[in-house]
């Protein structure tokens, strides 16, 4: 086995999504959104709505939530400021690392290849959450939805992350939970692995083409290394 091989089929680096892939953050999103809605004397939202709506960044989530409860879109700026304030306090309090994630990250990190976390979550919240859940140690780089001009499903964040890791997209595996991750990865030329337990906009993830669909991150098949 030659670990330094440049065979593009072999993973030379990993990019891992955060919400729905490593951490079950739905509880945080629901708690924060409902505090914002209560502040604004608006009706609260349920877990199902949030599960269908997360994954495209905070702006999209806040705008969609206001529309869902029938609020005026002009409330956005106020809601965004309140969302930031509540999220800063509540980040990680209602969320759990998914089963198999620590074991999976240990397997990946044992390969000694560069690893990045790439999420649509604002970078400051992502860094804070990774630190609180003791996952920061696995990543050489962490990028959030406000680090680049465009978010996933645009390929730009993937291309920029590959550049930062110093690896070719074709040799850099993206591990995510949604069609957003898959679309961004495919457009960037990165192979994609999808987990089934996350949030895929209310759609079955098995319908989204990927190298592998996993029930747990530690079930990832790295046999391309053999
Ligand atoms: O939309 C978000 O805030 C985060 O989503 P992601 O971590 O799955 O990219
Ligand atoms: Mg996700």
Number of helical segments with 4 or more residues: 8
Determine and state the CATH class of the largest domain. Answer: Alpha Beta
Envelope shape: globular
Largest sheet entry:
6 strands, parallel
Q: Order of helices and strands, N to C?
A: EEHHHHEHEHEHEHEE
Walkthrough of the structure:
The chain is an alpha/beta fold and 226 residues long. The protein folds into two domains: 13-25 and 95-225, HAD superfamily/HAD-like (Rossmann fold, 3-Layer(aba) Sandwich); 26-90, Putative phosphatase, domain 2 (DNA polymerase, domain 1, Orthogonal Bundle). 38% of the residues lie in helices and 12% in strands. The protein contains eight helices and eight strands. A six-stranded parallel beta sheet has the order 5-4-1-6-7-8. A two-stranded antiparallel ribbon has the order 2-3. β6 (172-176), α8 (179-188) and β7 form a beta-alpha-beta unit. α1 (26-39) packs across α4 (76-90) and α3 crosses α4 (76-90). The longest helix is centred in the middle third of the chain and has 15 residues, at 76-90. The chain is globular. The termini are close together. The protein binds 2-phosphoglycolic acid and magnesium ion. The site of 2-phosphoglycolic acid has 13 residues, from loops.
Output the keywords.
binds 2-phosphoglycolic acid, PGP-like_dom2, alpha/beta, single chain, 6-stranded parallel β-sheet, globular, Phosphoglycolate phosphatase, 226 residues, binds magnesium ion, DNA polymerase, domain 1, 38% helix, Rossmann fold, HAD-SF_hydro_IA, 8 strands
């Amino acid at each position: 086995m030659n670990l330094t091989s440049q065979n593009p089929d072999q993973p030379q680096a990993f990019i891992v999504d955060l919400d729905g892939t490593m951490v079950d953050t739905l509880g945080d999103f629901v708690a924060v959104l409902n505090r914002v809605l209560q502040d604004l004397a608006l009706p609260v939202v349920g877990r199902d709505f949030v599960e269908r709506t997360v994954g495209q960044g905070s702006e999209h989530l806040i705008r969609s939530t206001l529309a869902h409860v029938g609020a005026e879109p002009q409330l956005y700026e106020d809601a965004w400021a309140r969302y930031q304030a509540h999220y800063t306090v509540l980040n990680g309090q209602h969320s759990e690392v998914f089963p198999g994630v620590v074991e999976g990250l240990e397997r990946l990190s044992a390969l000694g290849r560069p690893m990045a976390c790439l999420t649509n979550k604002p970078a400051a919240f992502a860094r804070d959450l990774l630190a609180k859940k003791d996952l920061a140690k696995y990543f050489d780089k962490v990028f959030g939805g406000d680090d680049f001009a465009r978010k996933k499903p645009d390929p730009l964040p993937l291309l920029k992350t590959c550049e930062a890791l110093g690896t070719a997209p074709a040799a850099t595996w993206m591990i995510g939970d949604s069609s957003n991750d898959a679309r961004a990865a495919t457009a960037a030329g990165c192979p994609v692995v999808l987990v089934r337990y996350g949030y895929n906009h209310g759609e079955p993830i098995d319908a989204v083409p990927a190298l592998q669909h996993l029930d747990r991150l530690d079930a990832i098949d790295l046999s391309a290394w053999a």
